[in-house]
TrEMBL record:
Record: active site: S150 (charge relay system), D226 (charge relay system), H259 (charge relay system)
One BP annotation, GO: formaldehyde catabolic process
Any Pfam family the entry gives: Esterase
A cellular-component GO term for this protein: cytosol
Protein name, as recorded: S-formylglutathione hydrolase
Family: Belongs to the esterase D family.
Reactions performed catalytically: S-formylglutathione + H2O = formate + glutathione + H(+)
EC number: 3.1.2.12
Role of this protein: Serine hydrolase involved in the detoxification of formaldehyde.
Top-tier EC class: hydrolase
């Protein structure tokens, strides 16, 4: 598969790059960002953290705002940030052009409903196609971790719970943990997956955690001043389920923090060190 390099910037001795490629899973051209730490210059292969961003984001938000490159360089860790949905003139969007469905809002599911099923196969893209592409073209190992924010936190947690053998650890900032019971999730799942709510359970963290045998280490940070917390994020639902099944979840309520990248930048070091520990 052909990769086209569209940007390259040196950062903390490594390189922050963007590439485009044709995605088979999504049936369109896609762009991703990758940070390659300085250790690769000596021929060393490094593990990879996959970062999934939230509603309205692209591959650029995390790389520009989180301040993760300094620590990734220290730890010898690559970071890969895909876009949040398929893109292109022929890719279906929300009829009203709203921010929480369609372009920029793929929710990391495999859509089953027309017209979205033609392109919106973000689950397959993140789980299978993108890692295979990264491992074939960059000096990385098959050690993987996954993290994300908001909609991307939902994606990271659900993907990790469904694929525990593929990841060493999972973390999230402000994740949508019970999308079946919040407006964002109900809108997205109705459009992508149809009205049968039994089908939704395959992409709901609280439902997956109830039934999984996986015990992948999990770290979640939630700001207590997040204006989406009560209606959309519902962290208490995740805590309840984790306790009921004995899942090794650490959920930290962070006083005074909101839903923004200022929050992510404040605690991203903890998350990268958490993943590095489990890579080791």
């Amino acid at each position: 598969m052909t990769l086209e390099n569209v940007s390259s910037n040196k950062s903390f001795g490594g390189w922050n790059k963007q590439y485009t490629h044709r995605s088979t899973a999504l049936n369109c051209n896609m762009r991703f960002a990758i940070y390659l730490p300085p250790q690769i210059a000596s021929g060393k292969k490094v593990p990879v953290l996959y970062w999934l961003s939230g509603l309205t984001c692209t591959d650029e938000n995390f790389m520009h705002k989180a301040g993760a490159q300094r620590l990734a360089a220290e730890l010898g860790m690559a970071i890969v940030a895909p876009d949040t949905s398929p893109r292109g003139d022929d890719v279906a969007d929300d009829a009203d052009g709203s921010y929480d469905f369609g372009l920029g809002a793929g929710f990391y599911v495999n859509a089953t409903q027309a017209p979205f099923n033609r392109h919106y196969q973000m689950y397959d893209y993140v789980v299978n196609e993108l890692p295979a592409l990264i491992e074939a073209n960059f000096p990385v190992t098959q050690q993987r971790a996954i993290s994300g924010h908001s909609m991307g936190g939902h994606g990271a947690l659900t993907i990790a719970l469904k694929n525990p053998a593929r990841f060493s650890s999972v973390s999230a900032f402000s994740p949508i943990v019970n999308p079946m019971q919040c407006p964002w999730g109900q809108k997205a799942f109705s459009g992508y997956l149809g009205k049968d709510t039994e089908q939704w359970k395959a992409y709901d963290t609280t439902e997956l955690m109830k039934h999984t045998d996986a015990r992948l280490p999990a770290l979640v940070d939630q700001g207590d001043q997040d204006n989406f917390m009560a209606e959309q994020l519902k962290p208490e639902a995740l805590v309840t389920v984790a306790k009921s099944v004995g899942y090794p979840l650490e959920l930290r309520m962070q006083e005074g923090y909101d839903h923004s990248y200022f929050f992510i930048a404040s605690f991203i070091e903890d998350h990268l060190r958490f993943h590095a520990k489990h890579f080791a």
